[in-house]
Amino acid sequence: MSYQEILYDVADRIATVTLNRPDKLNAWTGQMGIEVRSAMAAADGDDQVRVIVLTGAGKGFCAGADMALLAGIAGAGGVPEGGAHALRHQAAAHPSGRVPPDFQGTYSYFPSLHKPVIGAINGHAVGLGMVIALYCDLRFASTGAKFSTAFARRGLIAEYGTAWMLPRLIGLPNALDLLLSARTVGAGEALRLGLVSRVFPQDSFLRDVRAYAKELATEVSPRSLAAIKQQVYSAIFQTLEEATVSAERAMLESLKSEDFKEGLAHFLEKRAPSFTGR
Hints:
- By secondary structure, this protein is an alpha/beta fold.
- The chain is built from 10 helices and 9 strands.
- The strands form 2 sheets. It has a 6-stranded mixed β-sheet, sandwiched between helices. A 3-stranded mixed β-sheet has the order 5-7-8.
- Helix 4 (162-170) packs across helix 5 (172-181) and helix 8 (222-235) runs antiparallel to helix 9.
- The two termini are 29 Å apart.
């Protein structure tokens, strides 16, 4: 697929997906959504890719839904019948069935990918831009990053599962604060809330993010990455007993894997690992 609104690059076993409408602070469009999903599928199916980084070109990560689209909806008094595709697109459910259907929706599909998705939040992540960030497995922010749900200040509601996802990431009181007030928080407060895992300097941001991604891509078993990611997201819907039984089955399978043998060998031989993902 040729891309019009994103950039796609693979290097050092890292696929970088860049939202590429910098003059609009990467405001989200239906075309962008289709292209991002296509790029994510391509990265997930590429044996040369072990980690995916999602970021924005220019000064913003994603400023939310394109305002021209929202203005058109407001002028029309709502989304015309049959016109909901202008706000979203719906793809087929992930065929592997590794995670519940909850993580196979329009924006919630990142957890269904085999590979970790790192959200490199280089600037404003607002409204739908924050939704996209929430579904990344990890979120790293630059010192200049800003976050806002924005919905309540536009007469909207907590969109696309944010009322479910945000409390699980930062706790109920903090989630209510950000959703009800729709206030803007900087990188430092986002780190304190647990909204992001790390904050890196603006001038070295992507370099620092890639250094972390490269460590995952070279030092960690890709089989383990996929299995642990599946465990974590599946466990949200399981009891402790169910999660434990599932882990015991997965552990027995991992003990038969080539990556387990390589994990022991490189440690004992004091050399860099050479994981295959098998």
